[in-house]
Amino acid sequence: MTTDYNPFENAKTQFDNAAELIRLDSAMREFLRVPMMELHFTIPVKMDDGTTKTFQAFRIRHNDARGPGKGGIRFHPHETADTVRALSMWMTWKCACVDIPLGGAKGGIVCDPRTMSQGEQERMCRGYIRAIHKQLGPNEDVPAPDVMSNSQHMLWMMDEYETITGAKHPGLITGKPVGMGGSLGRTEATGYGCVYILKDLLKQMNLPIETTSASIQGFGNVAQYSAKMYSELGGKVVSVSCWNQPDNTAYTFKKKDGCDIDKLMSISDAFGSIDKQKALDLGYEVLDADAWLSQEVDILIPAALENQITPAVFPNVSSKVKIICEAANGPTTPDCDALIQQRGIIVLPDFLCNAGGVTCSYFEQVQSNMNYFWDKEEVLAKLEYAMVKAFRAVYELAEQKKLYMRDAAYVIAIERVANAVKLRGWV
Ligand code: GLU
Q1: Which residues have C-beta within 8 Å of that of residue 48, sequence separation ≥ 6?
Q2: Long-range CB contacts for residues 52-56, cutoff 8 Å, separation at least 24
Q3: 144 CA to middle of ligand 1, Å?
Q4: What is the largest CA-CA distance in the chain?
């Protein structure tokens, strides 16, 4: 789905609404409304056919008052500076909301790794680090994976940084492969994190998870592990949507009695495209891309990109839907929030809901710094504790002050960041 919404404008609108709610002073508003630092650069890459291709790239640090900048590097053909600006801002609120000592940053490369060889991807990753290594570092700005970037990309980036600096710096980047400084559970963390808090919300609502059903948009890393954990806990995933290779069209794959997530994962590629023919052979209905949104389910889990739930499509959302669990960053446009509220749907807002990834990245850094690695149970137990604690603080504030959950999450996050900015004497 393409829309005219600009994610940075959305992020600023959300911030302005919350700033008004807490009567944030105007100097602080002015400072927190925009990123502190932006790098726009190019990466020339030698392609396998002997030509050189130039890729546009970004690294944007929104705020580092609470700690080093933190956030992924997205690989996407439609990446823009404004998308990265918005994502960097949401990272600031995300880290503050789960109360980890990190700031917000984000990176992006305008590229389509699905069409690039491993060698081309490696040279592009190394080029990214060569261009901006002086602005990165374990105590300055720490990248991680995001849409279409993965642990192998992170390792090439770390290796390039270590080659340039002549020393080992595992804290430079997170989302590294296990055994190479990565943390067990990091791959699952974002998706599992969403479901840890969804489970807690359902408990508060007295809704047994086994009686609920969900429809998911996307089938990349976040969607896969949300789907997996949710179905392991007894929930029924009725449909998932994804884009499809090689025709690049998006579809919704549906099974009324519940999708088998492991099976779907086994017929999807590294970027989350499900093989359409194999899905048909397994008895899945193949519907159009937007069908995920109109399923008669209790829970919608947008786990793909920004601007998917808009006033234009909201009327298609079934009256059965009680919860929108925002696993993606910015999936709902600000002009849709009032409509969602009117219907009484509860939103688990993105920067709370998907904070499991960065929380586990923080654990990865802690383990890398100690050079001592925890087992998976320990990582996941700490992750669940952190997520549920953050969720309960937001939920309780929302109940107490009769706030929409997104606003409650913003209030908590902005107050923490503004406080750090004040204590440092910046504003
Ligand atoms: N890209 C992920 C996010 O949007 C993870 C960021 C990280 O681990 O630093 O939250």
Answers
A1: 117, 119, 120
A2: 55/109, 55/110, 55/111, 55/124, 55/127, 56/109, 56/110
A3: 6
A4: 63
CA of 65 to the centre of ligand 1 (A): 18
Q: Is 221 in the pocket of ligand 1 (CB under 6 A)?
A: no
**Beta-bridge partners for 126:** none
**Closest ligand 1 atom, residue 358 Cα:** 8
Tokens of 313: 């499509």
> Ligand 1: which of 83, 150, 358 to mutate, judged by most atoms within 8 Å of the beta carbon?
358
Q: pLDDT value at position 148?
A: 94
389-412 per-position pLDDT tens digit: 999 999 999 999 999 999 999 999
Distance 88 CA to ligand 1 centre (A): 10
Q: Annotated active-site positions, please?
A: 106
For the stretch 27-63, pLDDT in tens is 999 999 999 999 999 999 999 999 999 999 999 999 9
359 lines ligand 1 (CB under 6 A): no
pTM, entire model = 0.97
Q: Are 7 and 82 in contact (CB under 8 A)?
A: yes
User: Measured between alpha carbons, how far is 173 from 61 in angstroms, rounded to an integer?
Assistant: 15
Q: Token digits for 383?
A: 């992750």
Contacts of 115 (CB under 8 A, 6+ apart): none
256 CA to centre of ligand 1 in angstroms: 32
